[in-house]
Amino acid sequence: MLPRTVPHVTTKDEYLAMGITRRNFLRWSGASAVGAVVFNGCLIPEEELQMESPVDLPEDLVKGIDNWYATICRQDPEGCGIIVRVVEGRAKKVEGNPDFPINRGKHNARSEAGLQALYHPDRITAPLFRDDSSGEFQAISWADARAKLETSLGQLQGRNKFLLVTQPLRGHMALLASEFTSALGGRHMAFQGFDDVTLRRAVQDVFGQGRIPDFDIENSRYLMSFGADFLSTWVSPVRYARGYGEFRQGGHSRGVHVQVDSRFSMTAANADEWVPVRPGGEGILAMSMIYVIIKEGLGHTEAGELLTAGKGYQSLESFKPDDADVFEATGISAERITDLARAFADPDNQPSLAIGGGSAGAHTSGLFNMSAIYSLNLLVGNVGKDGGVIFTPLSPLEDLAKQEVMDTGSSASFRDWRDLEQPDVLMIRGVNPVHGLPSAANFAGVIEKAGFVVAFSSFMDETATMANLILPEHVYLEDWGDDAPEPGPRYQTMGIQQPVVRPFHAGTGSFGDELLSIGDHLGLGLNSKLGLEGIVNPTYQDLLKKGAEKLWREDRGSVKAVTFDGFWNGMLQRGGWWDTEATSKAVIGEGTALDVDWPNITVEGPTGDDTYNLIPFLSNSVGDGNLAHLPWLQAAPDPVTSVVWHTWVEINSKIAEDKGIEVGDIMKITSPSGTVEVPAYVHPAVPPWTVSMPLGQGHTSFGRYAEGVGVNILSVLVPLTEKYTGALAWAATRVSVTKTGRHIDVPRFEGNVPAIEADPGRVIKIASPDHH
Amino acid sequence: MPIKRIAVLMFVAGGIGLGGVLTLLLVLFVARAWWTIPFEVMGFGVPPEQPIAFPHTVHSGTAVLVDLDGNERVDVNGDTMHGLGLDCTFCHRNVDKGATASIPPVEQCMFCHKIVGTDLPEVMKLVAAWDNKEAVLWERVHRLPDTVRFVHEAHVRFFTQSGNLLPSGEQAMIAANVCATCHGEIAQMVEVNQVRSLKMGDCVDCHRDYNAPTDCTTCHY
Questions:
Q1: Shortest CA distance to A181 belongs to which of A165, A170, A169?
Q2: Per CATH, is A197-390 categorized as 3.40.50.300?
Q3: Does the beta-carbon distance from B99 to A55 stay under 8 Å?
């Protein structure tokens, strides 16, 4: 047995004798740790020095590196900032730009589908000219096309013989279009499916501001929306939907949302309370609420004085909630109206916010409705405050600010289109008024009578087919642009749109570049007016850079740089420039006295049995029809009915039961203006006095995915207009609805999947196609 | 001066001299490695040993094939064997499509080597990898820093566009010649080695010669 040894324990003194003090110990161990890190960093990880031959052949796997480019979505007028994933020069995916103040990283199905416009098989890829004698389009060169266009523009004589029709424009494109048309002595008109003329006029009347303000849904605690389908299609839906998420679950007390709407929209479906008002009665409901608020002294007394011109609630006596006429017009009981008014003005519910739009403004008394609705905001004093109505400052660029004041961003009213002065040369860019205006406007007739019609279009739509010359435009993912969003995010914002890919087709061109080059050839002096002197053959990008240079000189906001090149790159990378400090200094009007005369709500169409008030609505995916050519959007189910690839008529289920109408029965919808036949969609949340149909389908020409899908319901709308603004009163048509005896299977998501036994004892129940 | 002292001085001077020479050599070595490719000493600059001794000469070369002893190789009929002369893109399929040239997968080698050369020891290694479903890990020869994004496709496209007279006055090349511009005559290398420095100066010189963009963001993005 070995002798046991006692283990030697080193004492403190022994350590000290070796020079190991606490300080030295820490010093050495620190040094060796640093050394380990530093010298390890010098080596390349082993796996990077090897390359793998994978075992299997990945036939379709092309290795690539992705880049994300920021730009602006032009699919709808909201103008969201997007980032696009580009792999090897091909755009692959659209996402929201997390930096962009309007949408802050969110986006919608419409912006997602922009890729399909880029790769669409039916894009026009060369200039087309139609010789009047043959009537057939022939592909011609850009040089020939330009020559023909310049010749026709050069022959213009007299004022207002040239008409430029575009979508509502903002930023430098608005400036360029306006300079171009005024140099030719012509007119510029903006087309939008359901125009916003009445909304703008109401905002002007109530707040004394020409531009649509930011409605701060996010910070509001009590939101009343009159007909505005703000989660789906109204004004700035992505911004509102993001704000709505905060409104509901943003960490403060959950906001209450009341939707006053004559249709059960997607927004109504999300509300805490849906008030199915009688069509056109929205204004009377709002007036009645104003009466209660003033009478009970709930709101700001000064605002009440102003609204009633000092006469007090007595001047609003005819809108008393318990008045029989009020019930007749709104269909809402006196108690309900009083409760709504009290809740809206309740100090615990502040800030509260009232917005109105959609069908609420689309009546002959639309302006009365909208003015009454927006005046509610004055009574609770939310203007210019968080959770209320906040105005956006004008652009930091002087020429753009002037343009914004001149209001070219707003669309023309139906009356403007109907009473259009016949132009000699008509230039149409990116819009389709032949499909999007009711036949009473007779826009097709205007095109036929015009001497020369040129369409800047990427697709052969109904308007382009009637043109003499078609110039194929880049889609927005291939082109330059900028945008001062309206409504803005309450501070100065300049979004920039850059081409994220090279043009997919060789034969397409840029609208902005063409205008500048035509202006140059015709000697319109655009370059000096736009500050582009000294640049040979300036492009639209040069114009944008000129503007950006002025922003750079301001030396403030989200992008700052020593050199302009650095600023420009920074702007392109972030998707734009904004200055959160630059808020509006505008003096908000305190409102004018309300129109206290009982409004004349006119509806036209058949009365009696089987007649209903028709409430059309913008499709959640294909909008007013401008996106009907994109199959992803055609296939995106409607949020309320889940119908795809079709037009349908929504009918109350009680009525349908009485009349023996089932889902898919083809109904004949007749008004004094026309007839359409569409399948029925039956659901319980359709007010029994209305039927509803979505806009946007029934294209006769707009590429393979739009043609022959659904019907164009504009053909049944009677051409009534709003009394003051001339906007189309598109919710003022009565229609008769009768069965044709035919039936189809409506293409829809719900109820088409049979119940399948997943595992024993557990059945997933899904309604069969015949039950709802 | 005593002899001893002189000897010490000479020793010290010699030491300093030797140190100087060594330092100079080290500086030279580092400088050359820094700007071009290192001297072929101490394992630097020599082709790495690959898991399978893949001969590019056989596949993409056209010269007469020789064995390790330098004798001409003959086939079963006694005829002299030549390289196959395959185009580079036959195996490096992604080179004209994407950023990376791509290393062919084992399956692609097996298209031929199911039949061809199954008795050769190096091919047996390949077959074994295929049978065991194992990837082959090659030693990397060309490597650019992570700060650079090199896209093969753009370069191949530029040099091969048909009928394109390059700014240098040359006619467009076939793909194999394009590869050789940077990689050297791989088809004649039994073992692949790097022949150009592929440092930033090298890239920029060439970009200037061909009027290619020289903005920073062309490569660093």
A1: A165
A2: no
A3: no
**Residue B20 distance to chain A (closest CA, Å):** 27
Q: Count the helix, strand and coil residues of chain B and give each as a percent rounded to the nearest 5.
A: 45, 5, 50
Q: Is A53 within 8 Å of B99 when comparing Cβ atoms?
A: no
Entry pTM: 0.78
Q: What is the pLDDT of residue A250?
A: 85
Return the residue of A nearest to B107 by Cα: A56
Contacts of A64 in chain B (CB under 8 A): 98-99
Query: What is the pLDDT confidence band of residue A595, given thresholds at 50, 70 and 90?
Result: confident
Q: Distance from B108 to chain A by nearest Cα, in Å?
A: 6
User: In this complex, do B98 and A52 lie within 8 Å of one another by their Cβ atoms?
Assistant: no
Instruction: Tell me the helices (H) and strands (E) count for chain A, helix number first.
Output: 24, 28
- The correct CATH number of A611-743 out of 2.40.70.10, 3.40.50.2300, 3.50.50.60, 2.40.40.20 is 2.40.40.20
How is residue B134 annotated by DSSP? -
Where are the domains positioned within chain A? 73-118, 132-194+407-487+504-556, 197-390, 611-743
Cβ under 8 Å to B: A residues 63-92: 63-65, 67, 88
Q: Is the peptide bond before A351 cis (omega within 30 degrees of 0)?
A: yes
Which pair of tokens denotes residue A585?
């200094």
DSSP A155-177: T--STT-EEEEES---HHHHHHH
**Predicted local confidence at residue A165, as pLDDT:** 95
- Could you tell me which of A529, A530, A524 has the C-alpha nearest to residue A543? A530
Q: Are B162 and B175 in contact (CB under 8 A)?
A: no
Amino acid of residue A400: L
Measured between alpha carbons, how far is B119 from B39 in angstroms, rounded to an integer? 38
A677 SS3 class: strand
Q: Render A289-314 in DSSP notation, one character per residue.
A: HHHHHHHTT-S-HHHHHHHTTTS-GG
Structure tokens at A359: 């069908």
By C-alpha distance, which of B21, B156, B54, B165 is closest to B100? B156
Structure tokens at A632: 């992803």
Q: What is the ipTM of this complex?
A: 0.73
> By the 8 A CB rule, do A459 and A128 touch?
no
Quick: pLDDT tens for A168-183. 999 999 999 999 999 9
Smallest Cβ distance to A55: which of B106, B151, B153?
Answer: B106
A43 inside 8 A of chain B by CB = no
| Pick from A366, A325, A326, A341: nearest CA to A291 | A341
**Which tens digit of pLDDT belongs to each residue from A666-693?**
999 999 999 999 999 999 999 999 999 9
> How close B66 gets to chain A, by Cα (Å)?
27
- Decide yes or no: CATH 3.30.300.30 for domain A132-194+407-487+504-556: no
Reported as a single tens digit per residue, the pLDDT across A261-317 is 999 999 999 999 999 999 999 999 999 999 999 999 998 888 888 899 889 899 999
Collect all residues of chain B within an 8 Å Cβ-Cβ radius of residue A54. Answer: 105-106, 135
**Total residue length of chain A:** 772
Q: Which segment of A44-48, A747-751, B101-105 scores lowest on mean pLDDT?
A: A44-48
Structural tokens at position A614: 């028709």
Please work out, in degrees rounded to the nearest 5, the angle formed at the alpha carbon of residue A637 by the alpha carbons of A636 and A641. 160
pLDDT for the residue numbered A463:
95
CATH 3.40.50.2300 is right for the domain spanning A73-118? no
The gap from C-alpha B210 to its chain's centroid, in whole angstroms, comes to 23
Model confidence at A493: pLDDT above 70 = yes
Say which residues have a Cβ less than 8 Å from residue B26's Cβ, sequence separation at least 6: none
The winner for highest mean pLDDT among A154-168, A198-212, A335-349, A740-754 is A335-349
Contact (Cβ atoms closer than 8 angstroms) between residue A688 and residue A731: no
A48 contacts chain B (CB < 8 A): yes
